[in-house]
Structure prediction request, 114 residues.
Amino acid sequence: MKTSQHFCKDCHEAALSGPAKGLMADLKAGRCHHCGAQAVMTDNLSCISGEAGGAQRYLCFSCSNEANEVAMEKFRAFEDGDESLPISDHQQKLREIVGQIDAHMRRWVIQRYN
Prediction:
């Protein structure tokens, strides 16, 4: 027989250990990289861009939804690219895409709050 446990938010956080507990603490203290709202998740695109040693970035719910939609559109176009290009060209293209997403998010946040 399969059993499950359902915790309230406080009990769930109390049950966390190790890296998950640290991540939860970071999210509670974190602010969205784009708009400054309460963080709910990490921004994995900052890792894709190849920013070595950069600080972890976080996203709020609204910005993560918008950034993910834009990223899906941009990465679909990237998938149609030339696979014979050297890895360094692919890495450069990924950095360009992340830059385009960041630029879109700056404009989107301004429009959202106006």
Observations:
- The longest strand covers residues 41-42.
